[in-house]
Amino acid sequence: MIFTTFALANPNINKNPQGHFGAFLEDLPMEKILIIGAAGQLGSELTRSLAYQFGGEQVIATDLRDSARFEFDYCRFEVLDAMNKEALHDLVKEENVTQIYHLAAVLSATGERNPKFAWHLNMESLLFVLELAKELKLDKIYWPSSIAVFGPNTPKINTPQYCVKEPNTVYGISKQAGERWCEYYFQKYNVDVRSLRYPGLIGYKSLPGGGTTDYAVDIYHKALAGEKFTCFLRADSYLPMMYMPDAIKATLDLMNATRESVKIRSSYNLSGMSFSPKEIFESIKKHIPGFEIEFKPDFRQAIADSWPNSIDDSCASKDWGWKPDYDLDAMTVDILKNLPSYFKF
Ligand SMILES: NC(=O)c1ccc[n+]([C@@H]2O[C@H](COP(=O)([O-])OP(=O)(O)OC[C@H]3O[C@@H](n4cnc5c(N)ncnc54)[C@H](O)[C@@H]3O)[C@@H](O)[C@H]2O)c1
């Protein structure tokens, strides 16, 4: 088993930066963690942090993409289609899995190209996981929701936890329905399912998977490559965003919180920062003065226009102590420093 030294996002958990797991693991109950869709933008970083927390031998990373197995040299990897109910059932049962992180989904922009498929995958796979959790009495389930649950009639500034939600993308509709199913399985069947409404996630370790906020990852690649960036959103299009270390920290904090402190069983509002394409461009220009941008909004502008500008996450702060670490400039400094070691420019 190979463990590389890596920084765990959650400072409360990262008690042992040398990568020695023994003493730390003694404090935790024996859990077996299954991640579905582990090779994506979120999964590739979250899986590593889970391996750090629980030990690589306690973690099974799965994805549809076989080529991803080389990325998981620190834990077991299996090819698994989230739509294959029997294979999922067998793996969970045979391996005595206690927790599932279900990350596989069709995202917002890709979903609009094939709405029926997006609905089918996003809904059916969640229902498989929830049914399995009920049947096998699994310990905990994690399933991410999104700011896409909000819609054009939602208050845009400091969007509250509870408000009108009329999403107009298939992705948003599937996340909203998914939230209702999560709460239903908690209320009716006592399934300990936990969820966060992530804003747009920005990381440098992997490429994004077809969302409306992908531009905020791509822009750093173009800046470092010395290329002009063409932005598919308007210069003033404000959206809630979050740097990946904060998203990982929030996920682990929520999953490590006591059952009683998790009061919301649909999904928690979560906020990191909000910025427009013009502002992220200016943040990068402080370090790369010759960087240039042009704006050519496409179909993703309409999706962005239907989402909030900023999010009120006071319930997450109150219930389990959520607080982000990064603002836009701190994120820019960190990405410009670290991105070149992951991608060649
Ligand atoms: N990235 C964001 O900005 C963001 C924001 C809000 C919510 N989320 C949610 O977080 C989760 C993960 O998002 P991401 O950005 O990592 O997505 P991604 O597209 O980067 O990764 C999804 C992974 O799922 C895998 N997958 C697809 N279909 C599968 C199937 N049938 N069976 C098994 N694996 C399959 C893909 O190969 C991919 O590796 C999703 O539920 C998404 O809705 C992401």
TrEMBL record:
Pfam families: Epimerase
GO terms of biological process kind: L-threonine catabolic process
Domain (NAD-dependent epimerase/dehydratase): residue spans on this chain: 33-263
Molecular function GO labels: L-threonine 3-dehydrogenase activity
Homology family: Belongs to the NAD(P)-dependent epimerase/dehydratase family.
Name of protein: Nucleoside-diphosphate-sugar epimerase
